[in-house]
Amino acid sequence: MASLSYIEAINRTLHEEMARDATTFLIGEDIGIYGGVFKATRGLLQEFGPERVIDSPISESLIAGMTVGAAMVGCRPLPEIQFADFISPAFDQIVQQLARFRWRTNGTYSMPVTIRTPYGGGVGGGVFHSQSNEAWFMNVPGLVMVAPSTVRDAAGLLRAAIRSEDPVLYWEHKKLYRSIKDELPEDEEFVTAIGEAHVAREGRDVTAISFGYTHHLAMTAAERLAEDGIEVEVIDLRTLLPLDTPTIKESVAKTGKAVIVHEAPKIGGIGGEIAAVLVVGSLVLACLAVAVVGTVAWPVDGSRGGGEGGQLVQGSRRLRGGIALTFLAVAALAVPLRRRDTFDVLN
Amino acid sequence: MASLSYIEAINRTLHEEMARDATTFLIGEDIGIYGGVFKATRGLLQEFGPERVIDSPISESLIAGMTVGAAMVGCRPLPEIQFADFISPAFDQIVQQLARFRWRTNGTYSMPVTIRTPYGGGVGGGVFHSQSNEAWFMNVPGLVMVAPSTVRDAAGLLRAAIRSEDPVLYWEHKKLYRSIKDELPEDEEFVTAIGEAHVAREGRDVTAISFGYTHHLAMTAAERLAEDGIEVEVIDLRTLLPLDTPTIKESVAKTGKAVIVHEAPKIGGIGGEIAAVLVVGSLVLACLAVAVVGTVAWPVDGSRGGGEGGQLVQGSRRLRGGIALTFLAVAALAVPLRRRDTFDVLN
Amino acid sequence: MTEETNRRRRGKEEAPPAADTEATLAEEAPESAQEGEYETEDVAAAPAEGSKGDFLSEQRRRESLAIDVTRDFPDKYRLSGAMEGCSDEQKLELFERLVKLRLFDARMRKLFRQGRFEGTYYSQIGQEACDAVLTYQMKRDDFVGPSHRDLGAAVGKGVPLKFLTAQVYNRVDSPDGGRYTACHYWHPDYGVMQPATSIMMNWIAATGAAFGYKMLGKDNVAAAFGGDGATAHGDFHEGCNFAGVHRLPIVYVIQNNLWAESLPLHLTSALENLSDRAKAFGFPGVSIDGNDVLAVWNATRAALERARSGEGPTLIEMKTYRWFGHSDIDPADYRSDDEVEAWMAKDPLPRFSAWLEDEGLLDDETLGGVVERVEEEIETAVDFAESSAKPGAETFLSEVYAESYPGFDVRAGR
Amino acid sequence: MTEETNRRRRGKEEAPPAADTEATLAEEAPESAQEGEYETEDVAAAPAEGSKGDFLSEQRRRESLAIDVTRDFPDKYRLSGAMEGCSDEQKLELFERLVKLRLFDARMRKLFRQGRFEGTYYSQIGQEACDAVLTYQMKRDDFVGPSHRDLGAAVGKGVPLKFLTAQVYNRVDSPDGGRYTACHYWHPDYGVMQPATSIMMNWIAATGAAFGYKMLGKDNVAAAFGGDGATAHGDFHEGCNFAGVHRLPIVYVIQNNLWAESLPLHLTSALENLSDRAKAFGFPGVSIDGNDVLAVWNATRAALERARSGEGPTLIEMKTYRWFGHSDIDPADYRSDDEVEAWMAKDPLPRFSAWLEDEGLLDDETLGGVVERVEEEIETAVDFAESSAKPGAETFLSEVYAESYPGFDVRAGR
Ligand SMILES: Cc1ncc(C[n+]2csc(CCOP(=O)(O)OP(=O)(O)O)c2C)c(N)n1
Ligand SMILES: Cc1ncc(C[n+]2csc(CCOP(=O)(O)OP(=O)(O)O)c2C)c(N)n1
Ligand SMILES: [Mg+2]
Ligand SMILES: [Mg+2]
Q: N or C: which end of chain A has fewer CB within 10 A?
């Protein structure tokens, strides 16, 4: 039994899965010699050699796109995009080719590809190292997106992604890399089912829906509110695409209120999709309060400001505080509106 | 007074604005010698010469990205992406550089760039010529998106976009190019304000929200429903980003019900963002029915199937019929729920 | 034509066979069948009403010439030399594939004009030697990443025509069950990847396949095809560069037909020879006459060997020409008649058939047999496609994902 | 060092000046100030606890050598030749800019270690000659598109240091009011574009600026900077290709420092000389010793003239080396000590100062003046930044759009 950090869980799972399946390979920038800019791939070059751990040129389109051909000839590619901010040069290959190839070929070819990428704010990364840009991919059926918030799911979702026949975008949160730890027995192969959200905490007053780093904000807020007798049900999405709509709807049918928390700007964020899931189809009286908590509509990131430098830290702390506050306010306000019994419309 | 088609309105406006402002230039694939694959840029090479009408190599990233430098030195670039499906290689330059450059430089540089691109289904274009992929850009503050549905707005929004200091993605619908006509006096300079939705038809029972080609579906449905005494308020969004939330909210506060219609797959479509606008912040009892009508979650397009070939036409017709039917059903069901007076919460 | 022609293959006295074949492939439906609901850029690009007649009769004239695979051509284009390592049987088999390509393409053009299938048609006539001669030499499980104008890649590799007609017609018997875009020929059992319409995507995919072969220790190789225009795309660079660094087993082919849709070569690149692009990647690039079957054979053979023996990639620029528009109703009036005529005179097919005759491998009887077999396969393939069912829209609702997810219901839209 | 050194600039007897300057720039805060909340890849990349001392003392040794701008170097690196069209005054002014660059960089490194600013620091020490010598020759309203390691582009073009310290410190007096990423130097009044962190974006932007100049009929030119690693990116290709086709007035510079973060050159490209990349675009490419100020001057001068006279782009590969890690706490242990030492011996600064001395343009007094002025400007600039206000988060809420829209409220989030 070892206590592992989130990034160690990723690293260990990569080791295990690459040992298990000789058709897997890693490709990405600085992942070999350097072990990754965050050290997520440490030791893999040493263990599996330069044939299977490819230190790629700075060619994100190639990194993502070459997996299609490699998968067709029998590989199980594990590309890494160094920062989620640099996934945009690979956007074309991901949304047009990788995500649609199975459909286009009428199921002839699976695309068992797992693209890992570090995302999110809170580490002072500045304009090009902080984005939480999952929403770009929400309108892309054929693609799967997962975003673990715990050490266990970091391992479990990664293993599930690697073994899946679908292309999976695996969002790993930079802020969580070394800030959380958990015990993971060596001999167990954790698999977290893709597509299933996790009710991390039960409650009857309001549902908090979030993922990754913001899941921890939601848990903290829930604890604070519990002191005031407000019970928050906290859903950790785990999978962002396709969303686990049954679990979300079930919870909100119970609580009647939902607060969705993400780091990306609210405008066009995945909060919208979740709001749609909640309200669409509710043709009878829907007594429902929904709030989306994202960042202000600036072009940076969710939880931290625009520079790597000093001042932004403070600013971001204030904004981050803001997220929690909004959350509390919405939840508190929501309580008097509790009328669960009549809210059976969300299905 | 001449009767112009949608595409002629675009062509004329380009002529007028390029004549008016010598710092404008066009760049895109086959836009010069060929006059554009749809002939939207016909005659412009002849009128303004190869210095200002650039037949670009097949380099979408360059086409979008070069505008940033060109704008910095005083140009007003008018790039064209040949099909919206081929905007993905330019995604990086648009979302990371063009849309954020003003913010990053603290307002030092405006980016008066208008990217035109033909989108949408209904013309048998197949997997790579039919997408309605506006949702990819909804989480990108700093970017403006407009999508005209009428001949007048084709001219008015294009002129407004060209004269705007903000980067504008101008979505022109292939199916509307030659299927609608309108009178546009020669001497008037139509400007359609960006950011303002248009209540194309007033009604008190349900609000239909759509844009581009689907706006015409909504209008047709509204006419049909009027025969049954159901009054549909039809909002033509015109601007997709930022959304005109005041107009949308006002209408839905009145009708209490909203149906959002777009061509893209529902999953992650802009219907979600609109749903969020409608429900978020409604902390008191919100009696509200919202439906999103998009396509099924396949990786193609909104209104037509997967091939350029024969069979898909039929299939797509059925699906298109489906859109109208769902729309009607939702609207009809919505009627008994009409309780407008109490629905003053959406503001 | 020019004075400088050699004797006709079938003797000067015979009536030109074009008319007969034209009759055989007579049109059965009005020209305008493709109009109506269907309306893409190509319709928009069709010539103005007035010139439509001229346009179509000129197209027919070219088709007649095209299918005369033994017609005259200027002496200066006469082929000489050898096809290294190619048996006589293979020479004839390859010839038959080229004839098949040519007649198939001409036939599809007519069927399209007759409204027998929808969508559009990208003719490859004039360029057959480029992709087919390469893929003919590949092993069946080698990987081919074709582009949008690569009928030859499939036919060269041996994909039976019926799958290709089914693709053109978008029927359930096409390899993708009628889902994907017409003219985008492929077949999984023959190692021909489904082309991505988006330029250069398959260049990258083929690079990935070559990487995969190397990593898995297989001795297969990959080939990727692209046009002159496509070489301006960033993915061209990223693919080639990676293959150069890792010495991947791949042959890259640029079919330089001088035009990228309406864009002339000098607006795609400042180069004389696009093979110079290879100099950016540290592997060999060669420019050859893409209408010379012998030259293509020898260059691609060497490149395949190089790839197979682990020496790395080669870039081959094949200079060629498409006789018709970018797609079937592009009038292509951005090109001069002189240019078109000059290239039609370099038609790879009569040049190759003349050489085969010079070598004593082809006579009228053999040729007759070839044409007969090919025409029969085409007829059967057309019948196959036309009697293959049209897929219902419902059938497209599957295969979005391989796995199932609790929240996903394709019909519900999420 | 090697035996093969020439006389020290300031005479063998003098005490090495490193210690003094080291004292001047003494550290005022503990090493660990950057730790705590701040945690990026670079922290992750820092060496294990045990080796941290060695790492830091080695960094300090290198800094000491770096700021001795007249130190010994091997004879074989001695410069000879002329700087065409460069007046004696300009030579000295340029020298002063290079010294400024060097001392500024060393100073920032120390301030970073002292925790005086957050973020990270990308040192350019070793590479100064590359960008500064080019931009020094440009007109103020010419366009420079720098990358992430281009302090020299700004200093060469004359941007006062205070704007650069303010950028490093992310204060309101930086050109972007403290919004953008530290170390990404720019200034609108000096024609230096704000670098995009994302590789090669500014390569494309500079290409667009060159196009704009040409279209607007201005006689300005543009320069774009990128690293060896960046040449693998698709945008490198698309930008160069377009510039080649349109003969744009632009100079493209690759600073080949052999490494792209941890990626060795041979994994970025199969080429010996990255200037061969230009062969794909039909314009000249040259490879030069980027640590030789004379060579850089002459090559860039020719390229600028070529651009200005409408002859089109040039690609210049400058072979150089970064003394320190990719960013400031990258131990860069993927490189061998020998390699680092060999390149430190080719330090462009002493080589240039020796040449100036040989030319009779530099003596101890002049040098003293230079160092004094530079150190004063640095001090003032640091004070300026430190007394400049930190922007409140609220100030970042403006300038998302130029226009206002009824539905947009940045605080509301939509
Ligand atoms: C990324 C992308 N941009 C634009 C297009 C539209 N398009 C299809 S084919 C073509 C021209 C291709 O020219 P070339 O590469 O020379 O091939 P050719 O058609 O001549 O065989 C263009 C612009 C596309 N398919 N993909
Ligand atoms: C598109 C993109 N991908 C990845 C990165 C991360 N990154 C920043 S600098 C760098 C290495 C650059 O190497 P090189 O071009 O040689 O420049 P150098 O740092 O050596 O000056 C990388 C991979 C980035 N900034 N942008
Ligand atoms: Mg071409
Ligand atoms: Mg480098």
A: N
CB C229 less than 6 A from any atom of ligand 1? yes
Contacts of B52 in chain D (CB under 8 A): 215
C64: in domain: no
Query: Which chains form contacts with chain A, at 3 or more CB pairs under 8 Å?
Result: B, C, D
For residue D92, which of D371, D340, D405, D338 has the smallest C-alpha distance?
D371
For residue C36, tell me if it sits in a domain: no
Task: Decide if B129 is catalytic.
Answer: yes
Separation in Å, CA of B157 to nearest CA in chain A: 22
Choice among A15, A129, A215, A216 that is catalytic: A129
CA atoms of C34 and A248, how far apart (whole Å): 48
Q: What is the pLDDT along chain B (347 residues), one digit of tens a residue?
A: 679 999 999 999 999 999 999 999 999 999 999 999 999 999 999 999 999 999 999 999 999 999 999 999 999 999 999 999 999 999 999 999 999 999 999 999 999 999 999 999 877 777 888 889 999 999 999 999 999 999 999 999 999 999 999 999 999 999 999 999 999 988 788 899 999 999 999 998 888 999 999 899 889 888 888 888 888 899 999 999 999 999 999 998 888 778 888 888 888 999 889 988 887 654 333 445 566 666 666 665 433 333 322 222 233 333 344 444 444 444 444 433 332 222 222 11
- List the structure tokens of C379: 């007829």
- Give distance in angstroms: CA of C227 to centre of ligand 3: 5
All CATH 3.40.50.920 domain ranges of chain A, comma separated, are 198-333
Closest CA to A116 of A192, A10, A210: A10
Q: What is the CATH number of the domain that holds D191?
A: 3.40.50.970
Residue A138 Cα, ligand 2 centroid: separation in angstroms? 28
| Contact criterion met (CB below 8 Å) for C364 and C372 | no
Strand A168-173 with A114-119, pairing: parallel
What tokens were used for B40? 């939207």
Residue nearest to atom 17 of ligand 1 (CA): C227
Shortest-distance ligand to the CA of residue B84: 1
CATH of domain B198-333: 3.40.50.920
Q: How many domains does chain C have?
A: 1
Topology of domain A2-184, CATH:
Rossmann fold (3.40.50)
**Ligand 1 pocket, C259 CB below 6 A?**
yes
C393, with CB counted inside 10 A (0-12, 13-18, 19+), is buried
Which of A29, A58, A63 is the best mutation target for the ligand 2 pocket, counting ligand atoms within 8 Å of the beta carbon and taking the most? A58
Reply yes or no on whether D148 is catalytic: no
Distances (CA, A) of B42 to B14, B38, C308, C396, D408: 10, 9, 49, 37, 36
**Could you tell me if D197 and A126 are in contact, meaning their C-beta atoms sit under 8 angstroms apart?**
yes
Under an 8 A CB cutoff, do A164 and C402 touch?
A: yes
Best B29, B31, B58, B313 member to test C by mutation, with max C CBs in 10 Å, is: B58
Residue D7 lies in a domain: no
Candidate from D237, D272, D279 with C-beta closest to C236: D237
Q: Is residue D240 part of a domain?
A: yes
Pick the residue from chain D with its C-alpha nearest to A60.
Answer: D233
Which ranges in chain A are annotated with CATH 3.40.50.970? 2-184
Enter the pTM of the model: 0.92
Q: Which domain holds residue C238?
A: 87-332+340-388
CA geometry: angle C208, C211, C216, nearest 5 deg: 125
Ligand index nearest the alpha carbon of residue A58: 2
Torsion angles phi and psi, residue A8, rounded to 5? -65, -35
Closest CA to D131 of D153, D147, D104: D153
Interface predicted TM-score (ipTM) of this complex, two decimals:
0.92
As beta bridge partners, residue B115 has: B169
Q: Which of D181, D229, D262 sits opposite A126 (nearest CB)?
A: D181
